[in-house]
Amino acid sequence: MPDRHVSVTQRLKSAARPVRRGAQAMGRGVGRAGRATRSRWRRLRASRAARRLATAAAVLVVGTAAAAGGLILVGDTSAHIGPFHTTMALHPDIHGETIVTVPPLGQVVFDSHDGPIGMNLRLDSVDPEEAQAIINTPDGVTTASENLASEVTDAVVRVAVEALAIVTLCGLLVGALTFRTMRRTLLTGLASLSMTAALMGYAASTLQPESISQPRYEGLLSYAPSVVGDAEDIAENYEEYVANLQKFVTNISGFYALATNMPQIGVDDDTIRVMHVSDLHLNPSSWHLMETIVEQFNIDVVADTGDMNDWGSEQEADIFSRGVAQISVPYVFVKGNHDSATTVAALAAYDNVVILDGEVQEVEGLRFAGVADPRFTPDKGNQPSSEYAQQMLTQSGERLREAIEDAGGADVAMVHEPPMSLPLTGVVPLVLAGHTHERAVQDLGEGTTLMVEGSTGASGLRLFDTEEPLKMELDVLYFDPDTKALTAYDSISVGTVGESDITLERTVIPVDEQAAELEDGATASPTPPGD
């Protein structure tokens, strides 16, 4: 019995072993399956989070890019500020400046706030009656200051709202093209709006009201820093800010009226623009002034009627003539009595320079005729007799007259000394000259006008020897592209020693006078040389 019992027990244990092993195996399998399931679930959850994070990042990047693009596309907003009709616009700018453009005189730049958003304000026109009221009326300053700050604020708010609307629309459009789902498109538009609003908020938080009295000038305005007023009047609070802002508007009103209210008749986009300069006399400031005018007034060609140097030395020619490389347009030149052959040779080495001496050349659509001054008189104590000098000048003028007749005519003649223009009467409508350092316009008769330029170099070093220093003077001439007739000209004068003023005056040639000049020029019979 005991043996049989043991045997049965052993058999039962042996039979149970496979069952236990199967159960254990099953348990292990279930455990592995559970762990695998949990692992896959964790990976799935991690993958979803990653996708959401990637989607959010993509929406933010696309929204930011759309915001930047929207700011670039933001159009101008019209605003009436004081006596000015302006256009305002926001744009990406890491410096965050406010730039006031005064066409064609240049720009006034204020470090008004930090970037990355800047503001441009362009003065399009000025109401002359309102400007005069501010300048001349006793209570004009008070009246203007009461409304000026609110007008600026309203304009800025309107520009900001329009910019936010545009960047939001830009974000929606870019989001729709990028993600093609309604939800992500809306999120992209919201991202563009939020990013732009945040940048505007940051810019507003860094506003520097005192910058209104600490401007930086560019262009022709750099010659008139008194436009804004005393930079020592720092605006420390809102009231002083308003006062300084009003001071800027008051001063710029009187100054800008010279440019914006000049008659526009005879000046179109396709008008040929010629800058007439003369008598630089080694003044290095003249090159910067000329370069500024070329850029601000969109000059097509420069006409220089001589006396670039004082003594005509090789050193003068080598150093000073380099300034012509700053001029980006054709530079037509005739020699003056202070210019030597060395001066002419140094200038001729530049590709944009056209030297005229008894010939006619077409430059930028106009036929220019020119002749060199026959005299070389840098030493005032050693000059030919007055009678012989007059004879030399007349002969040079006659030589140019013959060249014009042989060429079939010219639109503009260039000489240095005014007496050289007399033989040109009746053969050319306009003669440009210099030498006298005094601006003048004279009708020579028979349809010919003589325009004598002042000294663009303000007489050079000699300006320090005079009690009343000369101004730097030049003219911008406007020609009809079809008839080649002079339609208008701007006379520009810039203060020099101890001065900071600019005068700008436009003269329009009446249409009937233009027609008369053309008719006279076409029918005039040139007098034979020597008569």
List the main descriptive attributes of the protein structure presented here.
elongated; Purple Acid Phosphatase, chain A, domain 2; 10 helices; 531 residues
Low-confidence stretches: 225-242, 255-261, 521-531
What Rg, in angstroms, do the CA atoms define?
A: 39 Å
List how many beta strands DSSP finds. Answer: 19
Class based on secondary structure composition and strand pairing: alpha/beta
Strand content: 15-25%
Helix content: 40-55%
The general outline is: elongated
Draw up the topology in text.
Blueprint: H1 2-73, E1 77-81, E2 84-92, E3 98-102, E4 106-110, E5 117-126, H2 128-136, H3 140-179, H4 182-205, E6 216-219, H5 238-260, E7 272-277, H6 285-296, E8 301-304, H7 314-320, E9 331-333, H8 341-348, E10 353-355, E11 359-363, E12 366-370, H9 386-407, E13 412-414, E14 430-433, E15 440-445, E16 448-452, E17 472-479, E18 486-494, E19 502-508, H10 511-523
Parallel strand pairs: 3-5, 7-8, 8-9, 9-10, 12-13, 13-14, 14-16
Antiparallel strand pairs: 1-2, 2-5, 3-4, 4-6, 7-17, 11-12, 15-16, 17-18, 18-19
Helix pairs in contact: 1-3, 1-4, 2-3, 2-5, 3-4, 3-5, 7-8
Could you write a compact summary of the structure shown?
By secondary structure, the chain is an alpha/beta fold. Helices cover 43% and strands 20% of the residues.
How would you explain this protein's 3D organization?
With 531 residues, this protein is an alpha/beta fold. The protein has 2 domains: 73-260, no CATH class; 272-523, Purple Acid Phosphatase, chain A, domain 2. The protein is 43% helix and 20% strand. The protein has 10 helices and 19 strands. The strands form 3 sheets. It has a 7-stranded mixed beta sheet. It has a 6-stranded mixed beta sheet with strand order 1-2-5-3-4-6. Strand 12 (366-370), helix 9 and strand 13 (412-414) form a beta-alpha-beta unit. The longest helix is centred in the N-terminal third of the chain and has 72 residues, at 2-73. Residues 225-242, 255-261 and 521-531 have low confidence and may be disordered.
